[in-house]
Automatic annotation (TrEMBL), chain A:
Descriptive protein name: glutathione transferase
UniProt keyword annotations, A-Z: Detoxification, Transferase
Family: Belongs to the GST superfamily. Theta family.
Catalytic activity: RX + glutathione = an S-substituted glutathione + a halide anion + H(+)
Domain GST N-terminal, first and last residues per copy: 1-82
Gene Ontology BP, a term: toxin catabolic process
Residue ranges of domain GST C-terminal in the record: 89-229
E.C. designation(s): 2.5.1.18
Pfam families given in the database record: GST_C_2, GST_N
Record InterPro entries: Glutathione-S-Trfase_C-like (IPR010987), Glutathione-S-Trfase_C_sf (IPR036282), Glutathione_S-Trfase (IPR040079), Glutathione_S-Trfase_N (IPR004045), GST_N_Theta (IPR040075), GSTT1/2/3 (IPR043377), Thioredoxin-like_sf (IPR036249)
GO-annotated molecular function: glutathione transferase activity
The organism's place on the tree of life at top rank: Eukaryota
PROSITE patterns per UniProt: GST_CTER, GST_NTER
From TrEMBL, chain B:
Alphabetic keyword roster: Detoxification, Transferase
Name of the protein in question: glutathione transferase
Annotated source species: Salvia divinorum (Maria pastora)
Keyword Secreted applies: no
Reaction(s) catalysed by this chain's protein: RX + glutathione = an S-substituted glutathione + a halide anion + H(+)
Residue span, GST N-terminal domain: 1-82
Entry's family note: Belongs to the GST superfamily. Theta family.
Pfam families according to UniProt: GST_N
GO biological process, one term: toxin catabolic process
Gene: GSTT1
GO MF terms held by the record: glutathione transferase activity
This enzyme's EC code(s): 2.5.1.18
InterPro entries the record matches: Glutathione-S-Trfase_C-like, Glutathione-S-Trfase_C_sf, Glutathione_S-Trfase, Glutathione_S-Trfase_N, GST_C_Theta, GST_N_Theta, GSTT1/2/3, Thioredoxin-like_sf
Taxonomic superkingdom: Eukaryota
SUPFAM superfamilies to which the protein is assigned, alphabetical: GST C-terminal domain-like, Thioredoxin-like
Length: 238, 244
């Protein structure tokens, strides 16, 4: 059955799925849908995902969106996926679900709220909302603190104290790495105090090498163009 | 009996879990954590759920929070649960995951934000915020439209065109029920146009009767109190279940 992954490497959940697929030697076609060019709003893409969001997959005739649902589906259907990614044990699996659920309204919400209103607003031709950015940053910082104090507690280096990564690790780490698009000063201000987070990102990167670094090239190289766009916008408004 | 469900029946996700347990004959103890009395903030409850939120469960020594995770765990860990609640088929299961995920940032965000900012906020010591309520209403209405045009498409009466309810139906319908608390005019304005949604709520209620109504009785008592206050032009204070 042919697997197509519709994604944009600038999108956090897109990266999570790509890294998972490559780390598990999945055979698939990566179909790039560029958010910046509005390609996710095309009628053709609406056939793939009526919610007009990324990522989405088509596996044979089966269409699916929502990255956590996709990660679970792929972990359960792709051949040869090691158990640690999505454990068969009902209780271990439940814990993976709980961190994925927590992510929606915590790390994800905070990170998106902050970055959309500071870095990406300009790129999308919108004014950023400083109040929303501040609220986003507050939630982002609280979420990072919570990951350190709770989700990373335990013997192992991965979420839930596991000795090997789960799908939750790729999902959440790819959210943290979205800060690579921000100004270095802002990124460092937010991330540097969180040494446990930084180590965890490195551990996930090593566990999924060389794919993690390769897939992150796009977001890392977005910083300079985004800075230029912001400088131009600031200059215009002066 | 090893299972304890820590819940407040004023909480949408808590109701979903209680109804699921009752419908499926799961033996459990319900431990009430009164959100309006801030009991979720006690050190004792923090031992159960460090995130200080309801619902949460303890099964033997196993602790779990996040209602979708709990519903999935219960469907898998307890015997005799009919397949339609959380199908073994990986394709059907994936679709259920996708609607549960979509719920967080759509119906849940819109509905909870609207109810809090238009009505319930004062009971939690927060000012009502009409501007935020308007934003939430926009998201809520968009979500209801999406449920009608996409999630309820198909042969059956339930989400994903299913002929029988799943855990997703319980989760989303309990969220919509929270709208019982807002002014009748507003509720009619928001929900009235969505006949398919209204029917689906009724179908889910019937499929889980009599438990659905029983578990919602607290909500309806608070609703009555709010309605009588509105009738005399008083704001929504002192409507908490503990003060009834």
């Amino acid at each position: 059955m042919e697997l197509k992954v519709y994604c944009d490497r600038l999108s956090q959940p897109s990266r999570a799925i790509l890294i998972f697929c490559k780390a598990n030697n999945a055979e698939f076609e990566e179909v790039t849908i560029e958010i910046g060019k509005g390609q996710h709003r095309s009628p053709e893409y609406a056939e793939v995902n009526p919610m007009k969001q990324l990522p989405a997959i088509v596996h044979g005739d089966f269409k699916l969106f929502e990255s956590h649902a996709i990660l679970i589906y792929l972990a359960s259907t792709l051949p040869g996926v090691a158990d640690h990614w999505y454990p068969a044990d009902v209780r271990e699996r439940a814990k993976v679900h709980s961190v994925l659920d927590w992510h929606h309204t915590n790390l994800r919400r905070g990170s998106v709220g902050y970055l959309l209103n500071t870095v990406f607003a300009v790129a999308f031709g919108m004014p950023g909302d400083p109040k929303a950015a501040a609220e986003g940053e507050k939630l982002l910082l609280a979420s990072l603190a919570r990951i350190e104090s709770f989700w990373l507690q335990g013997d192992g280096p991965f979420l839930l104290g596991n000795s090997k990564p789960t799908i939750a690790d790729v999902a959440l780490v790819c959210e943290v790495t979205q800060l690579e698009a921000a100004d270095e000063n802002d990124r460092d201000r937010i991330l540097k105090p969180h040494t446990k987070i930084l180590k965890w990102v490195e551990d996930v990167k090593s566990a999924t090498a060389p794919h993690f670094e390769e897939i992150h090239a796009t977001i890392c190289s977005a910083r300079e163009p985004l800075k230029k766009l912001k400088a131009q916008a600031d200059h215009k408004s002066e | 009996m090893t299972l304890t469900v820590f819940a407040d029946r004023m909480s949408q996700p808590a109701r979903a879990i209680i109804i699921f347990c009752k419908v499926n004959g799961i033996d459990f103890e319900e431990a009430r954590i009164d959100i309006f009395k801030r009991q979720q903030l006690t050190p004792q409850f923090q031992e159960i759920n460090p995130m200080k939120k309801v619902p949460a469960i303890v099964d033997g020594r196993f602790k779990l929070f996040e209602s979708h995770s709990i519903l999935i765990y219960l469907a898998c860990a307890f015997p005799g649960i009919a397949d339609h609640w959380y199908p073994g088929d990986l394709f059907l299961r994936a679709k259920i995951h996708s609607v549960l995920d979509w719920h967080h940032s759509n119906l849940r965000s819109g509905a909870a934000g609207y109810v809090l900012n238009s009505t319930l906020g004062t009971a939690l010591g927060l000012p009502l915020n009409p501007e935020e309520a308007a934003k939430s209403e926009k998201l809520l209405s968009a979500s209801l439209r999406k449920i009608e045009s996409f999630w309820l498409k198909g042969r059956g009466r339930f989400l994903l065109g299913s002929t029988q309810p799943s855990i997703a139906d319980l989760s989303l319908v309990c969220e919509i029920m929270q709208l019982e608390l807002v002014d009748e005019k507003d509720r009619e304005r928001i929900l009235g146009p969505h006949k398919k949604v209204v029917k689906w709520v009724a179908d889910t209620k019937n499929a889980t009767s009599p438990h659905f109504d029983q578990v919602h009785s607290v909500l309806f008592k608070v609703k009555e109190k709010l309605q009588s206050q509105r009738a005399v032009g008083v704001t929504s204070q002192n409507v908490l279940p503990s003060k009834l």
